[in-house]
Amino acid sequence: MTLDGTNTWLLATGAGAVVVDPGPDLEPHLAAVAAAGPVALAVVTHHHADHCGGVERFRSLTGAPVLARDVSRSGGDGPLPAAGSTLDVQGLDITVLDTPGHTADSVSLVASDGHTTVLLTGDTVLGRGTTVVMHPDGNLGAYLESLEVLRRTAAERWRLLPGHGPVRPDARAVVTEYLAHRRARLDEVRAALDAGARTARDIVEIVYADVDRSLWPAAERTVEAALTYLSSTDR
């Protein structure tokens, strides 16, 4: 489920690095992040353990404060500021975007040093493949709105730094692809319902027939999110 693993991003500033998603509770990983240099601040994109399970140990290694949208679930020291607010860390501006959908507390970040701008998306947009909308914590309607926010925000030359997978050179293009994919999946779910499917599992067996069965439980949660969304929007 983590593709090549979970990405921890270090953004260099004059005051030390800003770390985005310290990562899981794995000592070699956390030690490597801490050894990269002084850490001024850490930000968690959402509460899943592969992104923030190591927060307590990370804090003891670096002494850096950790901010999150949901402090209680992420183990952070304090809440992120409201969406649209900017964290100014000596030479680096980081704008917070609320992008719920994968989880209720998911955020994305726009970071710029005045020359280069990157979009950090956590699990809202991945470097390859698509993400899971983790029903019931996740919400497909909110997720589609979040993708629209990212599409309007991103510029063509911004690099996309995802929570999993490789860097993508064109953030807007990737987000546009994600929107098209989600709409196509919704059409496939509608078609499966028209064909007689009645449960999320029925739909997974039709729509995700070509997907490795080990991924079907995650696909089923995404289909449950789709059914909840369709029940509130379709006649």
UniProtKB/TrEMBL annotation:
- As given in the record, the signal peptide range reads none
One GO term in the molecular function aspect is: hydrolase activity
- Highest taxon in the source lineage: Bacteria
Tell me the ranges covered by the Metallo-beta-lactamase domain, including all copies. 5-164
List, alphabetically, the InterPro entries matched.
Answer: LACTB2_WH (IPR041516), Metallo-B-lactamas (IPR001279), RibonucZ/Hydroxyglut_hydro (IPR036866), Sec-metab_biosynth-thioest (IPR050662), WH-like_DNA-bd_sf (IPR036388)
Q: Mark the transmembrane ranges.
A: none
Pfam families in the cross-refs? Lactamase_B (PF00753), WHD_BLACT (PF17778)
Annotated SUPFAM superfamilies:
Metallo-hydrolase/oxidoreductase
Keywords assigned by UniProt, alphabetized = Hydrolase
Q: What is this protein called?
A: MBL fold metallo-hydrolase
Q: What species was this sequence derived from?
A: Jiangella asiatica
